[in-house]
């Protein structure tokens, strides 16, 4: 098998099967995620994590074109996909990928880790994370101007795509921001804008979610945002005392995830 372009191998395997993992937003390095969890899993298959598929002006390609490189590359290897793991917003893409593979006669399982939907709050939170990770620290005046732009944009924009586009434009207007920083920001906002309109009910309704205790992440966050505290978005929830970051470093979570993956393969 040649070098991977759209997947990063986190673990080697010799079974002819692969488990795919999508962080949220996809392709963005997170302080906690599958890079932490995978070494703890007892799984005999190779495990690959999604890399970015595009980095250009948001939303043009559409969802099908966004996920196509991931799907095409894994199919080209001849490996069978045993399961797709999704974290946060990555759970939406995990469901979409699994559905596309099912249409190709594969039928992988989907296992969700603190899955959540996208709303304007998601975009604003991602914007704040982006600012904190710029290679050139922004000064006080620049940060103040961007904070005012965020407030204005959230008042004026009535959907995620328009809000994300306006915030991308605000970042592009900041002097001496690196091209790499802007491309990464565009990547992150593109993922959010494409994920927001996806109907997750048919993708998640038969799936299991491993949930943290964090009220501002995962299904807890989505239910609070929707004002639907009893909404059943997945088939089964398994709750842990760990916070969101701790879920990916927990041996109990890893043991549970390994057992669920083994049960699907049996």
The total count of strands amounts to 7
Mean model confidence by pLDDT: 89
Low-confidence residue ranges: none
Question: What is the strand arrangement across the widest sheet?
Answer: 1-3-2-4-5-6-7
Structural class: alpha/beta
End-to-end gap: 26 Å
Shape: globular
Count of helical segments? Answer: 11
Percent range of helical residues: 40-55%
Question: Taking Cα atoms only, what radius of gyration do you get, to the nearest Å?
Answer: 18 Å
Largest sheet: 7 strands, mixed
Descriptive notes:
The radius of gyration is 18 Å and the shape is globular. It has 266 residues and is α/β, with parallel strands linked by helices. A seven-stranded mixed β-sheet has the order 1-3-2-4-5-6-7, sandwiched between helices. Helix 1 (34-37) links the parallel strand 2 (17-22) and strand 3. The two termini are 26 Å apart. The protein contains eleven helices and seven strands.
